[in-house]
Amino acid sequence: MLITMSDKEIQRLAVLQDVRDHRITQVRAAEILNLSTRQITRLLQKFNQDGISGLAHASRGQPGHHCHDEAVKSQCLSIISEHLLGFGPTLAHEKLSSMFALNIPVETIRRWMTANDLWIPRSKRLKRPYQPRYNRDCLGELIQIDGSYHDWFEGRSAKCCLLVYIDDATGKLLHLRFCEAETTFDYMLSTRAYIEQYGKPLAFYSDKHSVFRVNQKSSHDSQITQFGRILNELNIDIIFANSPQAKGRVERANRTLQDRLIKEMRLEDIGSIDEANAWLPYFIEHFNQKFGKCARNSKNLHRPLTEAKTELDDIFTWQEPRKVTKSLTITYDKCIYLLEPTELNQKLIGQYISFLEYPDGTVAIMYQGRKINYSIFNKLAGLQQNEIVENKRLGSVLAHIQQQHEELEQQNKRSRAKKSMPSRKAQKAIIEQRKLNPVIDSCG
């Protein structure tokens, strides 16, 4: 008969044999096995009575007290195979409980499904292969863009975002710019600076950030973002990467910049966004000398700018349509704008015109390329609770809220100071008391 024993039980067997053969005492055996002398006596009695099998654990090989019946296991697996094929263990557990009244623990379901090849654990799944992609042939053919939010100044300033423009063919940094957040206006400023320096590339390659792509489409929303509209007007395509690995060149550049750029700015004692942006062209030049390479084709696919400066000013704006009311007004961002009551503007009643907001905060109203004169009728001050705030205005809204909190705190301090001061009547009483004190002392 085969008896299965653990290492601990085998050690006990050897020590108890020495006790039985009078080579050691029970007290010494208790010290070796770290047991009491009474326990050694009981084990020795069991060993003499049942032999080696008496030292093996009696529950070994027996079904556990919480073990499920084989019929229940077969029923669960058959239900999963017929009705819940492809379900994960967690969802299968929910459906077995709600639909079939089988309350089996989810980990038990997971173990059964794994043993019967109905579920493959994540650790054992084949990893998705990411095949390498050859770089583009020409400079300006594909520009990878991304924003990297990091503690770039190592605590000398607040965390901020670095916008990175890198050429796919050469690996050269073409533009870097620090900004507070990855917003549409910041990408407007960076893209304009880029195309004014190099020209218009064939395409940008980005992730699925909401600046570049409408991720939650609805019937009343536009199917193109403000940044996408700008690129469309400039005849520049934009391609969206399906994974971070697909735009690996800019991701690796971000990792390198988070090491080298931070240390370079530390040596230069740069502690603000403005100082860093003024110094970045120097860093880009040295970075490209070290890491840049020549493209396979020497042709430069950047196209020259044909748009005038004023035209670029109007293109790089946040544009939204607004309907002109009968009173020649439009509403935008809590402001009522009165259009100039000319005969030409009277024809715009009921028409949709474009409201332009520039990155510097100025606004304009345009219809078919014609700027329309306006005046502001009323601006609703303050923010209402639960108000929906656009991402492009989040920074200014938070600054406004912080200012309100600071003003409220100052008012509370002044009110507490006034409360702590005695009233005028109390002050007069104190003065009179002080005048009487010398008289009282002299009388005493």
TrEMBL record:
Residues 128-312 form the Integrase catalytic domain. Residues 413-427 have a biased composition (Basic residues). GO terms for biological process: DNA integration. It comes from Acinetobacter tianfuensis. SUPFAM superfamilies: Homeodomain-like, Ribonuclease H-like. It comes from the Bacteria. Residues 406-428 are annotated as: Disordered. This is ISNCY family transposase. PROSITE patterns: INTEGRASE (PS50994). It holds the Pfam family HTH_28. One of its GO terms (molecular function) is nucleic acid binding.
